[in-house]
Amino acid sequence: MEMETIKLTIDNKTVEVPKGTTINKAAKELGIDIPVLCYMELKDLCIENKPAGCRICVVEVQGRRNLAPSCATKCEEGMVVKTHTTRVLNARRTVMEFILSDHPKECLICAKSGNCELQSMAHQLGIKEIPGQEIAAMSTYKKDTSPSIIRDQDKCILCRRCEMMCNEVQTVGALSAVNRGFMATVAPAFEQNLEHSTCTYCGQCVAVCPTGALTEVDNTPDVLRALADPSKTVIVQTAPAVRAALGEMFGMEPGTLVTGKMVTALRALGFDYVFDTDFAADLTIMEEGTELLDRLTRHLNGDKTARLPILTSCCPGWVNFFEEYFPDLKDVPSTAKSPQQMFGAIAKTYFADKIKIDRKDLVVVSIMPCLAKKYECQRDEFSVDGNRDVDFSISTRELASFIKQANLDLNNLEEGEFDAPLGESTGAGVIFGATGGVIEAAVRTAYELHTAKKLDRLDFTELRGLEGVRSATIDFNGLPINIGIAHGLGNARKLLNDVRAGKSLFHAIEVMACPGGCIGGGGQPLHHGNSEIIKARAAAIYREDKQKPLRKSHENPFIIKLYEEFLGKPNSEKAHHLLHTHYFDKKKKIIVKQ
Amino acid sequence: MSSIKIELRQEDVNKIREICTSFKNDPQELINVLHKCQEHFGYLPAEVQEVISNELVVPVAKVYGVVTFYSFFTMTPKGKHPISICMGTACYVRGAEKVLEEFKKELGLQVGQTSADGKFSLSSLRCVGACGLAPVVMVGDKTYGRVAPDDVRNIIKEYE
Questions:
Q1: Is a pLDDT exceeding 70 seen at residue B5?
Q2: Across the strands, what pairs with A5?
Q3: What is the helix (H) or strand (E) element at residue A311, kind and residue range?
Q4: CA of B22: how far to CAs of B19, B27, B37, in Å?
């Protein structure tokens, strides 16, 4: 069937678009870029925010009395649209003046300065003064600081992107528009702090906030203090997704790999050892893969206590999510700690012993694409006598800011190499950064361990891509293994509901809280609604995997050595003690008063 | 992460469940459920919203969002004699604001507050459909028309 199309004129140019297309998208076809503020679309991830709230994108439609919001107005046959008449430009300016009249003017010291969509729009519309500002009232809200995220609602412009992310995409429901009129804002229930809400700290609200209303907790001062302390040995681990995105903040094309330059920058910043979370990712595969094979074998032998599917447990936002919404299933996920925490546990035992220092004199810093990692490293169970396994976690954005503070130009740095022994990794560790990567890495190892045969291919393209829920069956030498993948917590919820209902046919499921996986994490450089950036980062991750001489976790010589020298076997008692964890029921309880 | 415990009496929980069930636990019926619950409890404290959220499977932030959006819903208990002053257009132009000021002064209350003894609460609303009687004041179910600031003291006296 042929799609019904509509012909219309925008700025005297004719365009033909499918029925249902908005004016804004039709204009894009003609290369006309109508400014938008509250509107945001991540096309490849099927995410769209279209509340028609800010009215910056208004256009004039011939024969229509009022200006039309182009983001939400559908094209009609024969429509005549003008996108930059005097009336339109004046309306946009007035809208902007109203928004700015209730917005703090502290741009110089705002966390979003230079990367703020409101600031750019004010600049684009040429706003130089705000009439009536001296008499205009400002609404004020209390600042809310959680372990990962800072909410400063004075800077909220009610675009409601965060609310859409939190509710529609993530189905977490921690944030909602509350109150009305002047006091309207976006907040958790009863305007309590995030810490007391159902927030998972996935940070997707931060990733889409156009202003400084939602930002990450800045831990770079903590890291700087540790580096300046001569009594401390400070080591750093970098997550796979960081190297595929950091360059963007130094003007490089999205998808540029900066692994070597990043290592040099970290060394220049003063870290004593520059290590790789990818090493711990390989370790995760050894533990999680062994656990999968163990559960699978027991299940095949009729052991009813062996629960399948096994769920991955690398993602702290996802762990927070199931502890809150699926506590009844808390024995289903793998007990393996996340790579960040495995790294911390090994660094503060095995490595501290090797360099003969006390764990209290060793500071472990992680560079993560993630904000939930800040919360994760603060969990009680990841400390020994109050000393954290991972002391501080900073995001890709914070690292970029740190590098800039030190006046280093990433573009012109030499390529460095990670230090041994915790810096050595395989391609399997690298692909943890993209959705589907963890399970692909697990398949590469579990297949060879289970069948005792060499894989004849390493690229499981059927596990890759950006579709929200994916599935594939991998033949383990005659044994079909059903694999499910979900990224974005709303998609994870769908698979979890099946598991709860006993309808899931999967043996293993990978879940990542953020759309796209870690490459789309809440701590990554801002995509400003361009999903091409996320695709480019994924491509970079798979490129790095392809370049690696070793691409299977169990072939990492330093992992083999770690087991020989220290851990014994995967899932050994020592491995369990250091590399595995347990989960908690965090669902709100209704207590009946006596 | 949430860790707050919600405390309610069993009969209260049962009542909320009964109301939700009467609307087939349909999230689309949230506003109706809130109306019924406010009718029963007199107001909508956080605990009640938490139970509604659980029953209808709607995030409690959304429930709170609806409660704070509609001025009819309240999270503070109403007084025994709730006083509402209409601030709709007709009442407003005929001096409702002065009447409201007089109530505030006489009762020592702001809009949305309840007196310490629980006797009176003060609220403003938009149009009760009795514009011919403007300005209009309601005390409980009783309507007073053409109210002047001088009448305020006598109205309050009726309930003391």
A1: no
A2: A18
A3: strand A310-311
A4: 5, 12, 12
Verify whether the Cβ–Cβ distance B2 to A196 is below 8 Å.
yes
Domain ranges of chain A: 5-84, 99-216, 220-579
The minimum CA-CA distance between A42 and chain B, rounded to whole Å, is 24
Q: How many residues are listed for chain A in this entry?
A: 594
CA-CA distances (angstroms) from residue A539 to A201, A241, A379, A531, A543? 26, 11, 33, 13, 6
Q: Looking at the DSSP assignment, which residues form a beta bridge with residue A236?
A: A274, A365
Measure the CA–CA gap between A174 and A163, rounded to whole angstroms. 8
CB-based contacts of B159: which residues, under 8 Å, 6+ apart? B81, B119, B120, B139
- Residue B139, CA distances (Å) to A204, A324, B89, B103, B159 in order: 48, 45, 20, 12, 9
pLDDT along chain A (594 residues), means of 10: 88 97 97 97 94 96 96 97 97 95 93 96 94 78 95 96 98 96 93 96 98 98 98 98 98 98 98 98 97 93 90 97 95 96 98 97 98 98 97 98 96 96 96 97 95 94 96 94 97 97 95 98 97 97 96 97 97 97 90 74
Per CB-CB distance under 8 Å, the chain A contacts of B2 are 196-198, 324, 586-588
Closest by CA position to A186, among listed A117, A239, A139:
A139
Cα A131 from Cα A526, distance rounded (Å): 32
Pairing verdict, β A214-216 and A149-151: antiparallel
Active site (catalytic) residues of A: 288, 291, 314, 334, 373, 376, 381, 518
Searching chain B, which residue's CA lies closest to the CA of residue A185? B65
How far apart CA B48 and CA B54 sit, in angstroms, is 10
Cβ of B61 within 8 Å of Cβ of A178? The answer is yes
Tell me the C-alpha distance between B78 and B122, whole Å.
8
Q: Which fold has domain A99-216?
A: Alpha-Beta Plaits (3.30.70)
Q: Which residues contact A373 (CB under 8 A, 6 or more apart)?
A: A316, A338, A340, A366, A393, A523
* pTM for the predicted model, two decimal places: 0.92
Tokens at A244, concatenated: 């595929």
Radius of gyration of the CA atoms of chain A, in A: 25
Strand order from edge to edge, sheet including A479-487: A310-311, A508-512, A479-487, A469-476
Task: Check if the beta carbon of residue A556 is closer than 8 Å to that of residue A550.
Answer: yes
For domain A220-579, the question of CATH label 3.40.50.1780 is answered with yes
* CA A41 – CA A432 distance, rounded (Å): 25
**Nearest CA of chain B to the CA of A78: how many Å?**
38
Cα–Cα distance list, A440 to A39, A262, A556, A574 (Å): 35, 26, 16, 26
Characterize the bridge pairing of strands A233-238 and A273-276: parallel
DSSP state of A109: G
CB nearest B2 (choices: A187, A586, A593): A586
How far apart CA A199 and CA A205 sit, in angstroms, is: 10
Peptide bond between residue B135 and the one before it cis (omega within 30 degrees of 0): yes
For the stretch A60-95, what's the b/e string if a residue is b when 16 or more beta carbons lie within 10 angstroms of its beta carbon?
bbeeeeebbbbbebebeeebebbbeeeebeebbeeb
Architecture of domain A5-84: Roll (3.10)
Task: Please judge whether A189 and B60 are an interchain contact, meaning their C-beta atoms are less than 8 angstroms apart.
Answer: yes
Residue contact A590–B62, C-beta within 8 A: no
CA distance B86 to B77: 20
Q: Are A497 and A489 in contact (CB under 8 A)?
A: no
Q: How many Å apart are CA B23 and CA B29, to the nearest integer?
A: 7
CA distance A434 to A427: 12
Please enumerate, as own/partner, the contacts of A21-26 that have beta carbons within 8 Å and a separation of 24 or more. A21/A74, A21/A75, A22/A70, A22/A71, A22/A72, A22/A73, A22/A74, A22/A75, A23/A59, A23/A61, A23/A68, A23/A70, A23/A73, A23/A74, A23/A75, A23/A79, A23/A81, A24/A57, A24/A70, A24/A71, A26/A75
